[in-house]
Prior knowledge:
The structure holds two protein chains of two kinds. By secondary structure, chain A is of the alpha/beta class.
Amino acid sequence: MAKDKNKDKDKQSASSGRRAMIKTLATVPVLGAMAYGVYQKSKYDHIRRNVSDVFKLDNIAPTVMQTQPNGQQIRLGMIGFGIRGKQLMRAAGFAEPSHIDALKEACMKNSRDSRYKDYMEQEDLNVVVNGVCDIFDVYGEAAVLTGSNKYREGVNGKFGPAPKRYRHYKELLAADDIDAVIIAAPDHWHGTMTIEAAKAGKHVYCEKPMSWTVPETYLIRDAVKQSGIVFQLGHQGRQTDSYLKAKEIIDKNILGSVNLIEVCTNRNAPNGAWVYDIIKGSSPDTIDWKQFEGNEERIREYADYMKANGLERYMGPQERNHFSLERFFRWRCWWDYSTGLSGDLLTHEFDAVNQIMKVGIPHSATSSGGVYFFKDGRTVPDVLQTTFEFPDKNLTMLYSATLANERNRGKVFMGHDASMELSNTITVLVDPRSTRYKEKINQGIIRPNVPFFNYVPGQTEVDAITSATELYFAQRGLVNSYIGGKKYDTTFLHIREWLECIRGGLTPSCNIDQGFEEAMAAHMGTRAYLEGRTMYWDKDKEEITRS
Amino acid sequence: MKVKILYTTPQLCGLVVLRVLVGWHFLYEGIVKILNPKWTSYAYLMDAKGIFRKGYHFIADNPGFLKIVNILNEWGLFLIGLSLITGCLTRMSTIGAMALLAVYYLSHIPFVGADYLLPSEGAYLWVDKNLIEIAVLFVLLVFPTSRITGIDRFIFKDQAKVKPVK
């Protein structure tokens, strides 16, 4: 009996133990379900990511030229110290003390504002500013102070030796203690100053556009090539990380045959439409108006072209020798000094496309537009459409600009197989009718018309599927400032490249040949607008023609 | 004196299912982050707004801190998820989960006028999914089940147990 009782007890105990074990581990199988789900998901993602047979890109981040140690110090001269001149000097390592104070103050008000820190950490380019030139006394004196600010300090800071102020650019170009010049004068001076600098043996960094008239464009090229100086045109987009990656995408034919490129300018503020402030202290006594008017030969080229084509209505309307503060500070609004939207903004877009696709000078250009919003007496249009044709490349490039609307339209490269949207990031969308990706689309591996490939600058790995959130943040500049360690100013990189080319006898990315192509494309667009007819490029004669 | 909580079977089932589902949510969030070597909380932290934003930005700005926070977050999610599903050390993990969710909530409080870069999957005012999940975890904390169904039954076998109503 006792034995049976013990047996029952054992049975009960074993059964209770089993029940307890089941209760203890009842939910553990859920982990198995999770493991299976994760496995299935990874497998699915792996299949989705496995597009290497049709989507071959290197996992290499684009590189830019670095400063070599122990290079020679380059002695700079600065011509023009307006808005862009100041930016270029900052990029070269010399900021106005008031700018430094403003950055410091902004940083103190908002600890998230890293501009002061970034600027102080900007690499020293091993240059010295020995001469500055501006025809407006306030700018000239500011340039002297800035050129001496080698310690990057504020108004009450310590300064180095002051550069000499020249009142005429020719005096600066004649100086023996200057090796290279940065030209940031108005458009109508770019060509003349570059030619004379080249003749004086000074290396040149010239702001875009390269030229104001067509005839001077040939002279610039000849002068630069004959002198052997290192010339860099100021299209700093050449240093943009995503443009370099975009070139790889084009070169590897990821988009298929690209037949249409759409590039745009959208601005909607007086400053963006060149209505700049009239600076205090400006008067006929403080501005050398005679020098501002321009080089006589250039003015003749300009006037000859306008008159020969019945375009006098676009000249003036004020006499060239009539002093005007508006025309001095807002010179971009008049053809008398400016190259309009074509020279100022189309050139950036054209140069980006030329950098990525090596399109060269277009076969033809057609333009339209007008002064539709800023009825302030300007002669250059505030709305402009220019269509460039490249029949030998089966390509049209469409430039569309307005200065009265800020809607971002981006740069879009439209290929038979995919489209590429290019900004600081790259997004590739596969076309639903693509031939190359047809099989992958049918298999559900590629979903057309949704972002398929994203490139986020600073990432060394190229991922076919970046998460939507990551891309969202990247497009707002949050990710690349972290991943890259720090953000670079592309103008700084562009100047650094130029200086390194001087030191090493190399050719910069936006050299004279690229500049010649940029200038001629812009002139074709401008002439097409002014004359109201299509302009053609005669490749053999290297001339702009009308038929 | 320990208070015994008695559940009916449906009550127990409901609470266990709730615990496992919350655990699943945490565990998968953790696994996704651990499996993605590029994952970082940087952008999320940078997107923080409201009165605590400076603290979040401070962490994001310091690579050392950020690394620690990244590890704590991904492994915290993973371990909390594992704990809730298996019912192992559930009291501790429930409190940890509530703290973690509070950190998320405070970084992106859906106040009137709050405007975040992070795309939201729904429309929120004051109450968001983090706050709701905190409340759910509170319920699980005061109505524990892991000593009935879960590994805690084994770990705490010598202590008073909550028992279902017979």
